[in-house]
């Protein structure tokens, strides 16, 4: 049996966040090339998580499908 793959995608900022010029960079750092997400608690402390795929807020729906859903479609959910 295969293993469960885990992917994360940072959503684009919504209209309210754009209007407020909100920025996630001070608390969320995506490292797609390393397949990591770093959550900063403060200037000195952070937690790092690793995933099978890390997609930025600029990832298209096609890209999300290609890396998340497409690999499992031929085998079906239960293989």
Mean pLDDT metric: 85
SSE order: EHEEEEH
* N- and C-termini, Cα separation: 8 Å
Gyration radius over CA: 15 Å
Query: How many domains?
Result: 1
Tell the overall outline: flat
**Spatial strand sequence of the major β-sheet:** 2-3-4
Total E-strand runs: 5
Structural class: alpha+beta
Domain Kinesin motor: 3-79
GO molecular function: ATP binding; microtubule binding; microtubule motor activity
InterPro entries: Kinesin_motor_dom, Kinesin_motor_dom_sf, P-loop_NTPase
Family: Belongs to the TRAFAC class myosin-kinesin ATPase superfamily. Kinesin family.
Quick gist of this model?
The protein has helices spanning 15-19, 61-69; strands at residues 7-9, 28-31, 36-40, 46-50, 53-55. By secondary structure, the chain is of the alpha+beta class. A three-stranded antiparallel β-sheet has the order 2-3-4, with no helix packed on it. A two-stranded parallel sheet has the order 1-5.
Structure description:
- Helix content is 18%, strand content 25%.
- Strand 2 and strand 3 form a beta hairpin.
- The protein has one domain.
- With 79 residues, it is α+β, with helices and mostly antiparallel strands.
- The radius of gyration is 15 Å and the shape is flat.
